[in-house]
Amino acid sequence: MSRPPVPEEVRRFIAEDLDRDGSLVATLLAYAAADMNIARTAERLHVHVNTARYRLSRIAERTGRQPRSVADMLDLLLAIKMLSGTRTTPAPG
């Protein structure tokens, strides 16, 4: 069975963000590692909680996917892994 292709808007988002500073992809990965807890995400990233919320809303705007939805989060994490080789699981410790 072949994998479905990554939707163009998600592909474009990942490529553009990684070409810049990767802050939105890093936020998404931190959010997943923090079990989708926004306060822990902000703490991991050393940013204000409103900054983390803003970044998640930018991800939703740019991809059409809601990071707060488990299904959409899985789609985004798989796309990041497929397109960038970025580790999508939390580091130990």
Topology:
Layout: H1 8-19, H2 23-33, H3 38-45, H4 49-63, H5 70-84
Structural notes for this entry:
By secondary structure, the protein is mainly alpha-helical. It is built from five helices and no strands. The chain has helices spanning 8-19, 23-33, 38-45, 49-63, 70-84. The radius of gyration is 13 Å and the shape is globular. It starts with 7 loop residues before the first helix and ends in a 9-residue tail after the last helix. Residues 87-93 have low confidence and may be disordered.
Name the features:
5 helices, about 90 residues, single chain, mainly alpha
SSE series: HHHHH
Mean pLDDT level: 89
Please indicate the percent range of residues in DSSP E strands (runs of 2 or more): under 5%
**Describe the biggest sheet?**
none
Task: Quickly give the structural class.
Answer: mainly alpha
Which radius of gyration do the C-alpha atoms yield?
A: 13 Å
Which segments are poorly predicted (pLDDT under 50) over 5 or more consecutive residues? 87-93
Shape: globular
Number of strands: 0
Distance between the first and last residues' Cα: 36 Å
Helical proportion, percent range: 55-70%
Question: What's the short story on this structure?
Answer:
By secondary structure, this protein is mostly helical.
